[in-house]
Design a protein that fits this description.
By secondary structure, this protein is of the alpha+beta class. The chain contains eight helices and 21 strands. The protein has a six-stranded mixed β-sheet with strand order 6-7-8-3-9-10, with helices on both faces. Strand 16 and strand 17 form a beta hairpin. The radius of gyration is 24 Å and the shape is elongated. 38% of the residues are buried. The protein binds adenosine-5'-triphosphate (ATP). One of its GO terms (molecular function) is ATP binding. This is ABC-type sugar transport system ATPase subunit.
Length: 356
């Protein structure tokens, strides 16, 4: 169990004839021994590049990467003791699953008996014992993904890097594998970074989540902190399904937001009067009541069994919003729904900065 530290890590790609790309622009993070950190962000934000720099598959342009206090910068991948499971598996086709797992262990001076024991143990834990003698070509994508994971784990790495490890599994498999992965990671105590663009995966698996955008870290926090207390408009928009409602308005200087001439709702944050703001309210923080602070006119009601979702238009404002309700409500298009606004967050309308 080693801790992993990234200090001011940067990566700039220079491709001849093309503008340079600043893929990672100063990444600071300390991952504690045995911790699982999820790297979450939209496509192209620099997640994989960060992972590849830790693995040694890309050199850093600047900054330092340390494991257990020792710098990895300049070391080739094979001297880093970092286990990597990539989305595209990178398995060796001519080798059986068992040989794929054992590959690399011999080069590390691990004897035959120990190699066999390790492969058998990891295969058992990951549930691939029955396919150890098969070759990758005959495996389903879910099986290949498990083999890639087993191969990363079998080396008993200081740090385990997982790049979209569940992306090729169907929904049912993904659920099971996600739970297994978490159990395995806890059991073996690996310091782990998981890259994903799937927020549900990051929020359900990780001890802490790093939200990235455009090469920078936007927020680091526990899943609850990221969901409940987004540090910026970007995080508020990116995390949460269905997304947070963001209602444009003007601060009244007294802790309220004017959504229209006639409608002011309390925001609990006294932004300067006249400042353009966005009031963020999650769908579950809006409640249909006898009398409300605002009235919305229902457009669509979806019954999702565990809960219902009303898409509605704010009366007198025109903004659309989504309200989470109990399931099976008899809501019809055109129904007028008085809404009580519960917990809200406030963001600057121009910069997206969180106002507190
Ligand atoms: P995805 O989820 O789509 O994999 P990502 O967040 O992992 O995205 P990266 O793959 O790290 O993003 O890419 C970050 C930026 O760096 C992108 O603009 C990408 O085009 C660029 N990039 C990545 N690898 C290279 C490379 N070898 N040469 C030039 N540009 C690159």
């Amino acid at each position: 169990m080693s801790d992993l530290e990234l200090a001011g890590v940067r990566k700039t790609f220079h491709t001849k004839g093309r503008p340079e790309v600043e893929a990672v622009r100063g990444f600071d993070l300390t991952v504690g021994g045995g911790e699982l950190v999820g790297l979450l962000g939209p496509s192209g934000c620099g997640k994989s590049t960060t992972l590849r720099m830790i693995a040694g598959l890309e050199e850093v342009t600047g900054g330092d990467i340390r494991v257990g206090g020792r710098s990895l910068v300049g070391l080739p991948p094979q001297r880093r003791n970092v286990g990597v499971a990539f989305e595209n598996y990178a398995l060796y086709p001519p080798l059986t699953v068992a040989e794929n797992l054992a590959f690399g262990l011999a080069a590390r001076g691990i004897g035959r008996a120990e190699r066999k024991a390790r492969v058998a143990d990891v295969a058992e834990r990951i549930g691939i014992t029955s396919i150890l003698r098969q070759r990758p070509a005959g495996l389903s994508s879910g099986q290949k993904q498990r083999v890639a994971l087993a191969r990363a784990v079998v080396r008993a790495p200081d740090v385990l890097l997982l790049d979209e490890p569940l992306s090729h599994l169907d929904a049912a498999q993904r659920d099971v594998t996600r739970r297994e992965l978490r159990r395995l990671q806890r059991e073996l105590g690996y310091t782990t970074i998981l890259v994903t663009h799937d927020q549900e995966e990051a929020l359900s698996l990780a001890d802490r989540v790093v939200v990235m955008n455009d090469g920078v870290v936007c927020q680091v926090g526990t899943p609850d902190e990221i969901y409940d207390d987004p540090a910026s408009l970007f995080v508020a928009r990116f995390v949460g399904e269905p997304a947070m409602n963001l209602l444009p308005g003007v601060a009244d200087g007294e802790g309220g937001v004017r959504l229209s001439d006639a409608i002011t709702v309390p925001a609990g944050v006294a932004a300067a009067s006249g400042r353009e703001v966005l009031l963020g309210v999650r769908p579950e923080d809006l409640a249909i009541a006898e009398t409300g602070e605002v009235t919305a006119v229902a457009v669509v009601y979806e019954d999702l069994r565990e809960y219902g979702l009303v898409t509605a238009e704010l009366d007198g404002v025109g903004e659309k919003l989504v309200v989470q309700t109990e399931p099976g409500l008899p809501v019809r298009p055109g129904d007028r729904l008085p809404l009580v606004v519960g917990r809200s967050r406030l963001f600057d309308g121009e910069t997206g900065e969180r106002l507190r």
